[in-house]
Structure formats: C-alpha cells, structure tokens
Amino acid sequence: MAHAYTPGLKVMPCTxxxxxxxxxxxxxxxxxxxxxxxxxDVVAQTELPGKVFxxxxxxxxAVGPDEIKNFMLKGEGDTIKKGExxxxxxxxxxxxxxxxxxxxxxxxxxxxxxxxxxxxxxPPKVLPIKAYVxxxxxxxxxxxxxxxxxxxxxxxxIFGIGGETNGEIAVVVSSPDEDLAPESIKENHKGKxxxxxxxxxxxxIKRAIEIGVNAIVVGGIHDRDLRQLLGYxxxxxxxGTEKIGLTLIVTEGFGMxxxxxxxxxxxxxxxxxxxxxxxATQIRAGVMRPEIIVPGFPKNVTECKKDQGRxxxxxxxxxxxxREPHFGVIGTVxxxxxxxxxxxxxxxARVLEVSLDGGEVIIVPRANIEVLEK
Amino acid sequence: xxxKDLEVIIATDCGSTTTKAVLIEKxxxxxxxxxxxxxxxxxxxxxxxxxxxxxxxITEVEELSGRRILDGERIITPNEGMTGAxxxxxxxxxxxxxxxxxxxxxxxMTGESAQRCALGAGAIVMDVLAxxxxxxxxxxxxxxxxxxxxxxxxxxxxxxxxxxxxxxLAQFLKAADPKPRLGASYKLPVIYAxxxxxxxxxxxxLGDRTALIITENLRPTLERExxxxxxxxxxxxxxxHVMQQAPGYPRLMKMVGAPIMPTPAAVGTMTEKFxxxxxxxxxxxxxxxxxxxxxxVFSGVFNRTVSANLGMSYSISNVMAEAGLANIxxxxxxxxxxxxxxxxxxxxxxxxxxxPQTVEDLQIExxxxxxxxxxxxxxxxxxxxxxxGVQQERSISDAFEQTSSGQSLINVMKLDYVIGSGxxxxxxPRRTQSMLxxxxxxxxEGVTRMAVDSIFMMPHLGVLAQISEKAALDxxxxxxxVRLGTCLxxxxxxxxxxxxxxxEVTGSDGSRQAGELRFGDIIHVPFAAIKAKxxxxxxxxxxxxxxxxxxxxxxxxxxxxxLVLDGRGRPFNLAKDHSKRRDDxxxxxxxxxxxxx
Lengths: 374, 597
Known about the structure:
The complex is a heterodimer of chains A (374) and B (597). In chain A, 9% of the residues lie in helices and 39% in strands. With 374 residues, chain A is mostly beta strands. Chain A folds into three domains: 202 residues, Glucose Oxidase, domain 1 (3-Layer(bba) Sandwich), CATH 3.50.30; 70 residues, CATH 2.40.50; 54 residues, SH3 type barrels (Roll). In chain A, the strands form eight sheets. In chain A, strands 1, 3, 12, 13, 14, 15, 17, 19, 21, 22 and 24 form an eleven-stranded mixed β-sheet that branches. Chain A is elongated and about 100 Å long.
C-alpha cells in the first residue's frame, strides 16, 4: 500500500491525555500521587530569585571603588527597605553629606571593591504551576512537578497567541463558515471560550477583550489584524506569552477559512461545558500547537480511543489542502502515485490525487496536505 | 592508519531534521562521492538518540552501494574489499546547534571580537552584552537570566589595561546565575578570554558558580585580534560538555574517528580551504528554513555570521518583518494585495514544510529569498570589518580620503566566487533562478563566478578536511559544486539603452561568444566550458575591476547557466514607477528564461 508520512492536527472526540506540569527551576511539589485535581489547583510552586539592581556607590560618593566599604551602612546579605540608607559619606561639614538610599526592597547581594558597585536583589517571587486540566496525578517528578492524566475531547489548532486559560464553551455562530461578528459577543460571554466560524476581525477580538472573554477559537484571522492587535509582526512562531487580554486559537490558518466541519461539530457537541485552552505555539524543534481540552466524553461517545496517529496516509483518508491554489479545501485521498511528478512550478515532487466534494479530482504535492486526524 | 591510506570514508551531518550520510571512495588518484543516504534526525522524542538516525542513513548508503559498513551499531574499520570504511566523521547542528552568549567591555571593540570568535566557532550568538550596549544594568542581568545558552564567552579589556568593566560584567553574570540549556545539574561553562590582569578577580567571582575556563585574551591589544585560543576552547567545551548532554551524542562521539564539528564550523573550514587553494575571495551562503549562515574569505581573512531569524520557512515571516512588505513586493512581476501576501507568508510559517505549487507562489518565495539573502549579507558586512578602535597614522594625502577604522572587508568588486546552498538555491526548478536570486541579493560587480552546493555536502567535506584536505577538495570540485557560470556586471550608471561594454569569451573547448551590453539589459549566454578567457571592454565611466573604462582580461567559468551579463548598473535600483518596474522585471526574467511563460 502506498503511503506517506504527513502529520496532521488532532481533532479527537475522546482520548487519554497526559500533561506534564513542571517548574522551570526546582521547587516544591504540592500534589500527591493519585490525587484528583481541578484545572485551577496549584500542583507545584517555587520561588524565582528577585531582580537585581546595581548602585554605583563609588561614583555617587566620589570615592575610589576600594574605599566604598568604609561608607557602607549595610553589608552583603543584609536586608534593606526601599528608601533606607545604603551608604553615606562622613564629611566634616554635614551639609556636604551624601546619602544613598535603596531604590528597592530586598537584600544586598554584592559589594565590589573593583567596580565600586553594589548589587541589590529584590525578594523572590512565588511561581505557582496549576494543573491546567482536570485529571488525576499519575507521576511525580521530585522538586519539579507532576504528570496528570485525563480523558476528554482534544482539539489542536494550527496557531495561537496567549497562554493557558479555562472557561465554559459558548458556540456563537450557527455554522463553521459564518463570520464571528463583534455584535455576536454579549456581556454574558465574560469568562467564556467563544467558538466562531471562518474568521474573527480586529473589531471582534477587541470587543471580546472589552467584554472579558477568556478565549476565541476561530477558523482564520488576517495577519494584518494580528499585527495591529500585538503592535508588532510575529517573526517566528513561538507564542504563548502574549498579554492581550485573551487567548486566540486559529484552527485553519491566516485568511478567511471556514473551520473544518468536523472540528466545529465536535466543539458544538461540548457547548456549555468547561474547557482548558492554550494558545502556546512553537513550530520549530519540539512542535507545540495550541489546544482545546474538554474533560469527559461527548454525549454520544461511550468509548475513549487511544491516540492512534498512524503517521501515514492512505486512499480514503480525509485531508485538508494547506497551500495555494487550493488552500483550505477539504477532500479525500484518491491515489498516491509513487513516481515524482512535475507540478506547476516545474519542481519534481511527490503528489497525490485528491477527490473533492463535487467529484472533481485534483493533483496536489504531498507536502501541501495534512490528514484530518480523528 | 596513516592519512595516505584513506580509501573509503563515511561521513554524516546530523541536521535539525535530517541526517545525511555520504560515502567517499578513492577512484584512481581522485576521491569521489559515490553514494548518499538520508534519514530523519532522531534527537528528539520518542527516539532521543542521535545515533539511530545516523545508523539509518548509513544503512541507506549500504543498501545503495552494496558495501557493508555496519556491524550491528558499530562502523567496520578499516575497509577491506566491499566491507567497512577507513574512517567515519560527522558534524552536527541538531537540537538547535551551539548556542552562546558573548560579552565584551566595549560593544564595538571586544564585544565585536567576542562575537566574531563565537560565530567562527560555529555558534549561534544569542546576545552580545557590553558595558555600553545601551541597556540598564538590571536589564542586562535579567537578559542573562532569561537566556539559557550552552556556554558563555566573556571578554573585555586589552592585556594590562583597565579591569573595571570586565569585572563588572562578571559580577552581573554571577548575580544572574545563568543555567545551561541542557543538563540542569551541571554548571554553565564560561570561557574567560579578556584582560589577563583581571584573571584572578574573575576566578574569585565566577570560580564557584560556573565551570570557568581561562584562556588567552582574544583582543590582547587594540590592534590585534587573537581569536583562535578561545575558539579552540569553544570546540573543546562543545565536545566535552554540550555534546555529552545531547541525546545519544556520547555514543556518537565513540563512533567517530575525528572530533565532531558543529556544522557551520565545518562549512567555514571548507570555505577557507577552497579560498586558500585558489587564492580567491569567496562568499558562501546557506539559506535554511530558520537561519541563514554567511561565510566569507576576503584577503585571507575568514568571517562567519549567522542570521538566526532569517530563513525560508520557520523564519519567513521575520524576513517580511525585517525587510518590509514593499521590499518583497518589489521583486514580483505582477500585482499582489498586501493582505494576501501577509496571509500567505504567515501560512508558510505555520506550515513550514509546504512547497510552492504554482509559478506565482514560486515567485513569491524567490522574492522573499532575495530579501533574506540581502539582509543576511548586510549583517555579514557589518561584522566582517577591520578592527575598530585602532589608531591610524594618517599622512596629508589621507586627509582627502577619510577612512575610519572598522571598515567592511567585503568588497563585491573583488569577490571572485559565490557559493549558494540551502533548499531555495540548491533545488530551484531552474538554475537560472538560483543565479539571478544571488545576483539580485549580492549585486556582485565586475567578474564573479557562481555555484551551488546542490546536496549540501560542505559540512561533510569540512570535517573531512581536518583529516585529508585532498580528499575534501577532490570531492568539492567534482561532486559538490554545481557550477552555474559567471556574472559580468560593469559598475556605473548610464541612460537606458546606452552601450556600456563590449565583451568576448573564448572557451577552453574553442567555443567563442561576443557581443555588446547596453544599460538596463540582462543578457544570458548559455556557455558550458569549464574554463574560458574573457575580454571585457567597458566604456568610459564603467568599471569591470581595472578602473573605469579599462579593459579587463580574466579567467572565467561557464556552467549550467553560462554567462549572465548584467547591464542594470551598480548601484542597482529597481524603477520607482510601478509599471516600469514590472516591465523591467518581466524583461529580465524573460532574458534569463527564469519562469515558464
């Protein structure tokens, strides 16, 4: 059987998911093995060292760097409050006195007799890691965090911005090829995850931010709108830390592209339920796609299938074309000719024949399709 | 085994996505690349062992060649009949390559020297810290904390000079307490290559917190750079620390017969060997999906830069952000809506493995490639400079020609050879496309030979050159370089249609071509002879390398494309008028036979 490796985005009614929730630096694990956790429960936390600020004491007191120790009122390791005097000179006449106050609350990290600088460090900040998805702890990584397991609907988007959030799913369009209009977003959508159709405009996204919507999931957006929203062009697809007031997930790509019917229907079947979503996307090295996770089974599903990503395609597979001139078109693999074929650009490429809904058959490079993994 | 006994060599390059193996065999007196195989790189989950991809790629070579090279997971050495190889060598850029942070006291002096040192060693420089880099101290400390480099290079001050700045940088480094990218449990390697007078203080500050290695100052005096000792230390640490932490590398290191090199360092080595062997000024570029590496050797001085976010897939959107939409659109011979272009480029970014199916889409990628090549070249020119801060003695005559220190070493009139590699240049449907993209991006002047490395073999040959320079150069000439031809571009400006040069070319095979070049035209002359003699007679005001109006006699090369006579003038600018620009592009693309009509 002819086959080719073409990974696609996962759109699964129910699957068993594992999520690793780890701290960036060692800390304390708070959850127990086997414990059932809610999405917002803190499972581990650590202290991030505080920011460091420098004070050039030698310059400010007009003394040599090796002399500053004589003028320091605080030593290395001492705590200090903002406004408290760190160092001062001892002139004969007190009106020549210069005092240097600390600009931060914290501790004295270092006093250098070479540079004449004093480094002050702010107190550490607590960094908690939440469970993010409702599930059960199945593994503890000592000092770093946990792995949790959950069964539920799992849908990957192609691109997103903004970090992890949670909320109730609210489908606000009647079909996957409907535009998500600003006026469709109401006050009662605050804190929810809105499912749109083919496109969300800048006005729509701004309206959602204003209302306090937690996330928007939609087929496509225009890059120009994204630029205006962020104030800069995203150069490399490493996202998830943007702070624009909501998380945005695009399921198909850039432009006005109806959400895949299967994805839309699956999301609609979970309308009103709580979901965990993340916009974090990383395309290079260790690919990460944005995701929507809804714990539990959809109403009409009784069995939770394992992720059976085959890693190849076969005739009969549903696919999505992901490049011009048929960008966004969905069809079925008809055949996979093994030989290299000259395509319109004159490149020699491996291709496949795709049957479209109307019965038309087109030739597409294998690199330009992705399997709709169900 | 002595070097002269090398007859069969197996070499691999472990890239981020693909591991490529080549078999090199001695045929008579000449080494030739005979078979190649490739397999997906297996550094990441679920495999997490680079040797799996290496063995798979070598297995493909075994199948194609009929030679048995592997005994289980061991390379059979030496070769006997159709079994084994005399040596196995490898390069690696998998897992993001070698990532470094460098620091120097003054940004334009030791900061720049440290950057050149790390880049030449094959590293990606994540950031350059300097006392005068415009950032507040706490911002510098925060930046050190955020980045997780594989190692750090700290320099600053000339030997015996002031130590204040470099000690300050060391204190910031200590306060930031940076962690290495791989292996959370080991200390970050820090190479100190600064003022020798500060070594004791540096030891005192960083000795406990970091894995500190002290070496010779990379800028002992303002007038001299001494990059090799620090570069050697970078390679040592790359092998001893970084590679040891990467999945499967400790095993790979036991398999090889020579130290593993970072891929860009190997490409740099090959570029240098080629330039030296021919006494050429060479520019080599590797434009990938995420990054663009530029290597140059001018007057014997080697430089490398890496533009970490200029590439044709993962970084394509960043090319748009840095070049601007207008600069991409200017290369298109048809109208296109800005929003459409934006969306298309973003869609390529999020689905980086897709390929252009239509000519229009191909032309868009070629437009982006020109801008990526141009921007990476600009960055290269800015770093491939003479030493800054050097005192110059000036005579009265110099007063009329005020040259500052730190001028770029790159002179496109003196450029002899351009080598392109990377998918967009190596696998263009028509070779004329590769050649014109490079001409448009680099705007070479005078006589410039051009080639592509069609299967990106320079890494394998660079690491092989450490063992056998002859084997590396033999394969480089015969199997690696695909000669495109020569670009002849008179420097100067005139009115459109005006005669600017008469030319005549006689090939070693006796073939002869001659003609006239007029301003604003491109003439493409198919010419395959490997060696040829050129006589170029530019008119007054036009320079082919011997001064305006002077005749030039030169040895040139024909190739798959042949000769490209570029009469668009230098400096070359596209017409500002929209329809004129489009007509010009169509005229030039037609002259080159660039795209199907």
